[in-house]
Write a structure and sequence with these properties.
mainly alpha, two-stranded antiparallel sheet, membrane, UCP010361, DUF2029 domain-containing protein
């Protein structure tokens, strides 16, 4: 029995409403670390005491200090990075649009509690928008976004919600079949480029999008739409340049410092990566106060090379599927590329799970894999902070270390499996089948790919 068009709005309303409740719960959880009394620079005195043991730590509250957010300095313009790798003068370690969001959250804030609240108010609409789009695209499957632990744990852990919204919006735009394909491709490329200026990873999705536009207008003779593909590429590049160029021209050192910071970042205990837990023990004692230049150099070389290799494999397998099915599976390829990045990048922060969940919603993935990933993520999302808290208190951390290792290796193994599962996956069928053209009274829903005719 198919869900009627009139019933889709209530489904979407439920999905959005539950997302709002999840984010409210997430804010209340993080806000337990914030509040009076404060020190002279507006830091909650309770923050350092309970942030790990009570799992209420957030990067948002932490970065109230150290990036001049508390001084209301506009980011990148006067900043840089010193010889010790410390960011100065308002520069932050994220791409420019995330830095601007941080600055906006700091306006009118006098304490880290204010900053957490104001940032949550800025970020929450992006979480609701993502829920709405996923509800329209996949119906009840969108509850994977709205009604699972990651949104509670990570909605206000960092500035992830806007970048997730841009990725989902790009997919949503590509379903609006009343708009010509080239136009949709350009709009989606702009959205993904904006995402790149928030947290980089959506920029990778432009490559499969280009392949989709290149092949989608092909005829039986396999003629390609080269002009459309070029327009998509140009739109993405132009958007990235337009957003970044003013910052680079005003202060190149401040703009460049955010990239330098990430390039120099070591794959240490805080990165939750396979590199730290798998490779580092081969180079010497596993202690963060022991410098291991050979290890750092190895990771800095291997990590980007292997990420690029994973991207190339995903794109190639997507091309083979195009020749078999007649449609380039750009969403599936994007999901696989994200798996490669999450697995092989030297940093795998817990909140990155929010990047992956929309692909669980949109693509046919076995329930067992989804549930297993959520369990592994929960083990990491809670265990890692309990582990840090035990280490800081110099108490027995062995149980929490087991949770962290389960999270690291559980996610890693599942990402390898998901890489290939995504590449074979089809899009979930819409709740409604039928005509979506003018006069139908129906919005286009996400449809499984069909061979081009």
């Amino acid at each position: 029995m198919h869900i009627g068009a009139r019933q889709r709005s209530p489904i979407t309303a439920v999905v959005v409403g539950l997302a709002g409740l999840a984010m409210l719960a997430g804010y209340l959880q993080k806000a337990r670390c914030a509040g009076a009394p404060f020190d002279g620079v507006g830091r909650s005195l309770i923050f350092d005491r309970i942030k790990d043991t009570q799992v209420c730590y957030s990067d948002i509250q932490f970065l109230w200090l150290g990036r001049d957010v508390n001084l209301h300095v506009f980011p990148y313009i006067t900043g840089g990075i010193n010889a010790d790798g410390v960011l100065t003068g308002g520069t932050v370690e994220y791409p420019v649009l995330s830095g601007v969001l941080m600055w906006l959250g700091g306006i009118g804030s006098h304490t880290d509690a204010d900053f957490l609240l104001h940032s949550a108010l800025i970020l929450a609409p992006f979480g609701l928008l993502t829920a709405w789009m996923l509800g329209r695209l996949a119906g009840w499957w969108a509850l994977l976004w709205s009604a699972t632990p990651p949104l509670v744990l990570y909605a206000f852990h960092n500035w992830e919600l806007p970048v997730v919204a841009t990725s989902v919006a790009a997919i949503f735009v590509m379903t609006l079949e009343r708009i010509p394909l080239r136009t949709r491709g350009v709009l989606a490329a702009v959205l993904l480029a904006v995402g790149f200026c928030l947290k980089l990873y959506p920029g990778a999705f432009v490559l499969p999008l280009i392949a989709y536009v290149l092949t989608r207008n092909g005829t039986a003779e396999r003629r390609y739409d080269v002009r459309g593909a070029v327009l998509v590429a140009v739109a993405a590049i132009t958007t990235v340049v337009a957003v970044n160029l003013p910052f680079a021209l005003i202060s190149y050192s401040g703009w460049r410092a955010s990239f330098t910071f990430q390039e120099n970042r070591q794959a240490d205990l805080t990165t939750n990566s396979i590199w730290y837990w798998g490779l580092r023990p081969l180079f010497g004692p596993v202690a963060d106060d022991v410098p291991l230049p050979a290890y750092d150099q190895t990771v800095s070389l291997l990590s980007p090379l292997l990420v690029c290799a994973a991207f190339a494999i995903a794109l190639r397998l997507g091309w083979l599927r195009f020749h078999r099915d007649g449609v380039y599976p750009w969403i599936a390829v994007s999901a696989a590329m994200l798996c490669g990045f999450l697995l092989l990048h030297k940093v795998h922060s817990p909140q990155y799970t929010l990047w992956l969940i929309p692909f669980f919603v949109l693509l046919r993935v076995p329930w067992g894999l989804v549930a297993a990933y959520l369990v592994a993520d929960l083990s990491m999302g809670i265990g890692v902070f309990k582990y840090f808290g035990a280490l800081a208190a110099q108490t027995d951390a062995s149980t929490f270390e087991v949770l962290v290792k389960f999270g690291v290796w559980g996610r890693a193994g599942l990402l390898v499996v998901l890489f290939f599962v995504f590449l074979r996956a089809t899009l979930r069928h819409p709740p409604v089948r039928g005509r979506t053209g003018p006069g139908s009274g129906r919005r286009p829903m996400l449809k499984s790919p069909e061979p081009a005719r």
